[in-house]
Amino acid sequence: MNIETALKEAMTVDGALGVALVDYDSGMSLGTLGGGPGLDLELAAAGNTEVVRAKMRTLASLDMNDSIEDILITLGRQYHLIRPLASSKGALFLYIALDRSRSNLALARHSLKRIENGLDV
């Protein structure tokens, strides 16, 4: 599936507020869908790039030969889920913001994995 289709599919996840496909190197999004006044997806893409970079540095410092499957940030009313794409060797990641009261975290993680597997970038 292409980027547009992947983003549309991600927005069907229960509780989805916004989704972005982000370039890890630049922090720029290759595509976004959703968001709004309370969720600036471009700003979130740049900020979450720093989160991924920090975790990558930590793994390297600990000399861990492993990869990040996903990163979860739990807020009072939202979940923010970051999933580096294995097929891009970590150069891209999917980011989705979810309304905690309307989402199922396990299903959201499963859905992002399925979307990642079908995404052709």
The radius of gyration over CA amounts to 13 Å
Helical region count? Answer: 3
Largest sheet: 5 strands, antiparallel
Q: Which structural class should the secondary elements be placed in?
A: alpha+beta
Strand numbers in spatial order across the main sheet: 2-1-5-4-3
Relative strand content: 25-35%
Poorly predicted parts: none
> How many distinct beta strands?
5
Question: Could you say which overall geometry the principal axes of the C-alpha atoms support?
Answer: globular
> Helical proportion?
25-40%
pLDDT averaged residue by residue: 93
End-to-end gap: 8 Å
N-to-C SSE series? Answer: HEEHEEEH
Structural account:
With about 120 residues, the chain is an alpha+beta fold. The protein has helices at about 5-10, 40-60, 105-120, and strands spanning about 15-25, 30-35, 70-75, 80-85, 90-100. The protein is globular, with a radius of gyration of 13 Å.
In short:
The chain is 36% helix and 27% strand.
Give the helix/strand layout.
Blueprint: H1 3-10, E1 16-23, E2 29-34, H2 41-61, E3 71-74, E4 78-84, E5 92-99, H3 105-118
Antiparallel strand pairs: 1-2, 1-5, 3-4, 4-5
